[in-house]
Amino acid sequence: MANTTSGGASAPKPSSSVKLVLLGEAAVGKSSLVLRFVNNDFQENKEPTIGAAFLTQKISLPNRIIKFEIWDTAGQERFASLAPMYYRNAQAALVVYDLTKPTSLIKAKHWVAELQRQASPGIVIALVGNKLDLCADAEGSGDAETAPSEGGGDAETGAEGAAADVEAETQTDTNARKVPKREAKAYAEEESLLFFETSAKTGSNVADVFTAIANSIPESSLKSGRGGGAAGATQAALSGAANRAEEARVNLGERGKDVKDNCAC
Amino acid sequence: MESLSDTTWDVVIAGTGIRQSLLALALSRSHKRILHVDQNKYYGGTEAAFSLEEASKWFDESQHISRCALRIEAIALWKNPHSEGLGSSRSYTLTLSPQLVYCRSAILAALVSSRLHTQIEFQAVGTWWIDRDRPVEVSESNKQNNDATDSHSGKGYAVAQPSGMLQKIPSTREDVFADDTLAPRDKRALMKFLRTVIMDPIPDAESNQDNPVPSALTTLSAMPPLLAQPLLALSMSYDSPGTVRTKSVVSRIRRHIQSVGMFGPGFGAVMPKYGGGAEIAQVACRASAVGGAVYVLGRGLAKLDEPRVQSAEAEASAEASAEASVEEVVRLELSDGEEIKARFVVGSAEDFPTGYIEGAAWKLNIDLVKIVHSISIVSSPLEHLFPPTAESGPVPAGAVVVYDGPDHKTTSGDDSVSKAGPVYMVIHSSESGECPRGQCVIYSSTVSSSEASEDENVQRLDDAIANLLAASPLSDSKSEVLWSLKYRLRGRPIDSDAGPVMSSKSARVMLFPVASVDPVFDDSILDGVKDIWKRILGDEVEESEFLKFVERTEDDEEGL
């Protein structure tokens, strides 16, 4: 959690935006993961997401700030027509399944296949098994939390930290886990996905997922712009007051207010 | 849950083009039950953006679908057989909607007030160039054929002598000062023009309204035609100099000049990253989905049955008056056969069943003009076209090159003005997210002149690009067209009256006004959207609330 800061803007590090989309079956906890990451909060019995919601959160890496623009989609979308709109141009995707529900992993695999077929080439995909708190082996997450390295950015680290507990999985009677970690992890490795087991409820591993994603975004897709330093200036900003170093975009905000005032409508 | 027919929809929006998407956005906080469908399996309709594979699929399909022909028709798809330079299909986002957005455009204000601007990345469109004054006459006889580029199934790219010059079109006083190719007298004339054009109201604009531009501009500022010509290019108007009307062109030039510096030094226009208008449309649809609208791709309107309007028929059918007439719903059949009900149905002409449009006797084909377009992927980044907008300004991702030749130096010795309009080439660098690094995409367009054959009109686009590539300082075999798609767009002439929203007798079915062919985002689009929005919501809203939203909070998501 220490990695996540909302006051990152004051730091003089370069900042990049990363569009991230959440996909997965209904009720696996997509919105809860985001809520935990963005507000460090959890709601029992959260209402299903309608359509999709847009949230942002900054994360501070040793050498740069990543601003996640998170598109949380509705898992129970009826006509499979929304998702393409969300994963278009996304640089990262979080495909979520429920550790206690094997069918949700099957759905997750469908999403991974669709992303690999349709999304931007080079998209970073993380497979996330959520509801670790319902698993008797949840203490595994305790190890995982301390595991991810600072800048090295190998997301697997976190997962491996918990790997030692794999054996414990099948032993406990009270264990609601239905998807063995081994199975999901093997699949993730096969498809070159980042892999984590999380609990949005306890917060376990949640920040690590986002940090790992941030570290895995290729430098080249962060630095938009030809000439290194000058690159930051590409995106002309529609909110004039914005820190130019922060983003290359044209910032409509500040100045935009004037526009609105002038506008006859 | 899977059935759309269980709900009586407040609004069914057909098509996901920019108009429909902006309407969906405008209605996104209205708590109306909205169904947004598209006959295509992709978003954007005639403003879509495609990967290479999707583009070629679109090309194939548009050969067969007559409905599309109302607005857009594919002409040719070409892939350079001699080059391996193309990247993977999905590394391209090629847009049918490359419109520039001027900083003063009402759409930017609307995107800000609706809180959408943070979700769209805008990039600067930097320099306007004019490609002209070639000493070498490019006529049929001395077109040079170059093996590297001439492979276009008989319609080879004519490569002119690389002797032409790209000149930056001065649009600010600083530009004029800095331009050392200008004689002092010309500088004075330009300065005077720049001063005059931003004055409001423009002196004599009214009285000169119907004069062709060169003389009007000359009157206005004693400008020699040679200087006036590049300024005409700032208007982004397709007319040839002989046919341009003063009022429109002067106000368009003024828009350009007044926009410069508004959001940053040295540029006056922006473009949304990842496909221009296509991106705006999708972002608007997302906002609408967040508000609870249901999205269904791949299903269009197959049939419409409007409520009967106070005719003898209505009273004749007793059961109709019992329920349906109270509700006044439109009965729709979707292309998969599902029948649904809606209080309002909105779309563009191409989203309605052909028979319906014809049956309604709506006049759609008033004064439509045709513009030929090409989307060309070029194997080099053409970096020289994208100088920084200013010392501390952003690196532009877009540039505009205006090509006037060769028809301007016409055969007859007299001073007859060329009939061909300019070719506009809007070049997007790889910063736009539309192509891989090291390449660029050229969106070119020109009016489809009735006095030339279609082939000749299309050839002008190829000539323009060939000239541009030949004039590149890095000109070598590396600068070549790798892939191109050509299509024809029909619409209202630029700055013509958009006309009213058309609605059926029952006022339940509404059509957006015919879109214009403007290469610049046409603000009148918002007027049409607003009109329909108002008709749907009636007294529930104040006009001033159009597209004005507060930031969504967590709580908003629930209970919608």
How would you sum up this structure, described in words?
Chain B: This is Rab proteins geranylgeranyltransferase. Chain B: It holds the Pfam family GDI. Chain B: InterPro entries: FAD/NAD-bd_sf, GDP_dissociation_inhibitor, Mrs6. Chain B: One of its GO terms (molecular function) is GDP-dissociation inhibitor activity. The complex is a heterodimer of chains A (about 260) and B (about 550). With about 260 residues, chain A is of the alpha/beta class. Chain A has two domains: about 10-220, P-loop containing nucleotide triphosphate hydrolases (Rossmann fold); about 230-260, no CATH class. Chain A is about 30% helix and about 15% strand. Chain A contains nine helices and six strands. Chain A has helices at about 30-40, 85, 100-120, 140-145, 155-165, 180-190, 205-215, 220, 255-260, and strands spanning about 15-25, 50-60, 65-75, 90-100, 125-130, 195. In chain A, a hairpin with a 4-residue loop joins β2 (about 50-60) and β3 (about 65-75). In chain A, α4 (about 140-145) runs antiparallel to α5. The longest helix of chain A is centred in the middle third of the chain and has 17 residues, at about 100-120. Chain A starts with 14 loop residues before the first strand and ends with a helix. The model of chain A is unreliable at about 1-10, about 140-175, about 225-235, about 240-250 and about 255-265 (pLDDT under 50). In chain B, strands 4, 6, 7, 8, 9, 14, 15, 16, 17 and 18 form a ten-stranded mixed β-sheet that branches. The radius of gyration of chain B is 25 Å and the shape is globular. In chain B, α1 packs parallel to α9, α1 (about 20-25) packs across α14 and α6 packs across α7. Chain B has about 550 residues and is α+β, with helices and mostly antiparallel strands. The longest helix of chain B is centred in the C-terminal third of the chain and has 17 residues, at about 455-470. Among the domains of chain B are: about 10-75 and about 275-365 and about 500-550, FAD/NAD(P)-binding domain (3-Layer(bba) Sandwich); about 170-260, Guanine Nucleotide Dissociation Inhibitor, domain 1 (Orthogonal Bundle). Mean pLDDT of chain B is about 80; it is low at about 135-165, about 210-215, about 320-325, about 405-420 and about 555-560. Chain B starts with 7 loop residues before the first strand and ends with a helix. At the A-B interface, β2, α2 and α9 of A face α3, β7, α9 and β10 of B.
